[in-house]
């Protein structure tokens, strides 16, 4: 199989996964939904055909394992002493609302392509490969990201099981309906004594590689982020009778805050802050909004700057509320620090890029990835693939087949370099 044909299969598979959606006219595939089940079942079929054993863990992560060369391990006394080592690959299979097709599946399906190519050549490496399709990276359903990879890393907070989605369905219930088992989650933590690390291929989601005319780049760090739920609680009232001076309009307070968020981020280099979701209650054209809840996402590569920005914004929200006699609820939903990619694995990735005669471009990731959660378990490396126009979290998200072929070749070469190293150890 040429890398071109692997890349063609990859594109076809992304189209298939792109059709598994909760909504008829756009791609929305949240955690533990029937659309997610379709994705898991379909990818599981592809994994089995590539010679992998497949299982789904208690939160719904899909895991395909391609065994190591046991004779190689036996020759080196490894099965007696500690068993073969394992390299983790993959990404997530959930999506945002009205998503593109490549954010997540790119990492799962390029990893699958590499295993498929090994299987076709009847080749095994001195280490096993596990390909993960993580169940939740976007945090769309419960507003807390990395649910899947946190289970694997052993950092999943069991209190999250009580969170409810927009239909009032508790996470524990959603997991059970998906065929998972909330009680078994603590036991699903991956041991790390056999791990070589985790490598994820992901669409860049930004314009840098395109501007440099490069197909791939090597990630240096993954930026830390906070997700906060902010509620302004005012007083609902009649839109025709309550004088303007006597109102406690929660939406007006929220509007002031949204602009304060933008102003702070515009004036602080490296800071990005977003209000992406807002609801006004009771929500009628002739009722003054009584309660407004919005989502706040704050990111900076420097953790101290990010934390300071969150404190500043909370202070500003309180000032706005005081002036308008509205009350505030400030609830931290998630926080992750900036994660540096592991030096050695990143060097091997860079070496693989060089072997394919491309210049090595290091770049930080402003987006969050499963590697953030997995960095609590093992060493993490990431490869970015050029993204048309830098557009992502948008149905227009696009990669070329040619760039995917390069990514598959780089990942394959990376595995070979790792195999060589393991063979020598
Ligand atoms: C994931 O896509 C994130 O960075 O929010
Ligand atoms: Mn995403
Ligand atoms: Mn992603």
Molecular structure report:
The protein contains 13 helices and 16 strands. Helix 1 (3-18) packs across helix 13, helix 5 (105-120) crosses helix 13 (401-424) and helix 9 (250-267) runs antiparallel to helix 10 (303-324). It is elongated. The strands form three sheets. Strands 1, 2, 3, 4, 5, 6, 14, 15 and 16 form a nine-stranded mixed sheet that branches. Strands 7, 9, 10, 12 and 13 form a five-stranded antiparallel sheet that branches. The mean pLDDT is 96. It is α+β, with helices and mostly antiparallel strands and 425 residues long. The two termini are 30 Å apart. The structure holds glyoxylic acid and manganese (II) ion (2 copies). Residues 92, 103-104, 137, 202, 369 line the site of one manganese (II) ion.
Write the layout of secondary structure elements.
Blueprint: H1 3-18, H2 34-49, E1 53-56, E2 62-66, H3 70-75, H4 78-81, E3 85-92, H5 105-120, E4 127-134, H6 147-153, H7 171-177, E5 195-203, H8 208-212, E6 216-222, E7 224-233, E8 237-238, H9 250-267, E9 272-274, E10 278-281, E11 287-288, E12 291-300, H10 303-324, E13 327-336, E14 339-340, H11 343-355, E15 362-365, H12 370-374, E16 380-385, H13 401-424
Parallel strand pairs: 3-4, 3-5, 5-16, 6-15
Antiparallel strand pairs: 1-2, 2-4, 6-14, 6-16, 7-12, 7-13, 8-11, 9-12, 10-12
Helix pairs in contact: 1-5, 1-13, 5-13, 9-10, 11-13
The distinct bound ligands, ions and cofactors come out as:
glyoxylic acid, manganese (II) ion
What is the CA-based Rg, rounded?
A: 23 Å
The tally of strands reads 16
Low-confidence stretches: none
Structure annotation, total helices = 13
Roughly how much helix do the residues carry, as a percent range? 25-40%
What spatial form do the alpha-carbon principal axes imply? elongated
Order of helices and strands: HHEEHHEHEHHEHEEEHEEEEHEEHEHEH
Largest sheet: 9 strands, mixed
- Overall mean pLDDT score? 96
Strand content: 15-25%
Distance between the termini: 30 Å
Structural class: alpha+beta
């Amino acid at each position: 199989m040429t890398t071109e044909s692997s890349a063609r299969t990859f594109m076809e598979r992304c189209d298939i996964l792109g059709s598994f959606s909760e909504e008829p006219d756009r791609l929305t595939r949240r955690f533990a939904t029937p659309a997610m089940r379709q994705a898991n079942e379909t990818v599981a079929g592809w994994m089995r055909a590539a010679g992998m054993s497949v299982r789904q863990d208690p939160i719904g992560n899909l895991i395909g394992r391609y065994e190591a060369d046991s004779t190689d391990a036996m020759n080196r006394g490894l099965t007696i002493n500690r068993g073969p080592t394992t390299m983790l690959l993959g990404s997530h299979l959930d999506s945002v609302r009205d998503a593109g097709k490549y954010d997540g599946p790119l990492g799962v399906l390029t990893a699958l392509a590499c295993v498929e190519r090994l299987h076709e050549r009847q080749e095994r490496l001195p280490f096993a490969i596990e390909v993960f399709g993580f169940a939740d990276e976007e945090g769309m359903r419960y507003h807390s990201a990395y649910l899947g990879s946190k289970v694997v890393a052993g950092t999943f907070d069991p209190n999250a099981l009580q969170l409810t989605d927009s239909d009032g369905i508790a996470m524990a219930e959603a997991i059970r309906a998906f065929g998972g088992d909330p009680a078994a989650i603590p036991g699903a933590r991956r041991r790390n004594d056999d791990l070589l690390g985790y490598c994820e291929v992901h669409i860049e989601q930004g314009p840098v590689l395109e501007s440099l005319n490069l197909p791939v780049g090597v990630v240096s760090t993954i930026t830390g982020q906070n997700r906060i739920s902010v509620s302004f609680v005012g007083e609902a009232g009649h839109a025709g009778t309550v004088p303007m001076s006597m109102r406690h309009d929660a939406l007006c307070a929220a509007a002031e805050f949204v602009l304060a968020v933008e102003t702070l981020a515009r004036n602080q280099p490296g800071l990005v802050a977003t209000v992406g979701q807002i609801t006004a209650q009771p929500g009628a054209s002739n009722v003054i909004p009584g309660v407004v809840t919005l989502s706040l996402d704050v990111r900076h590569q420097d953790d101290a700057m990010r934390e300071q920005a969150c404190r500043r914004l909370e202070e500003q929200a309180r000032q706005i509320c005081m002036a308008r006699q509205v009350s505030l609820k400030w609830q931290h939903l998630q926080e992750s620090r900036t994660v540096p990619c592991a030096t050695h694995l990143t060097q091997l990735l860079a070496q693989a890029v060089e072997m394919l005669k491309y210049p090595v471009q290091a770049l930080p990731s402003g987006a969050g990835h499963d590697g953030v959660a997995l960095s609590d378990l093992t060493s993490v490396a990431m490869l970015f693939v050029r993204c048309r126009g830098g557009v992502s979290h948008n149905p227009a998200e696009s990669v070329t087949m040619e760039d995917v072929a390069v990514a598959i070749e780089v990942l394959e070469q990376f595995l070979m370099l790792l195999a060589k190293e393991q063979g020598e150890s």
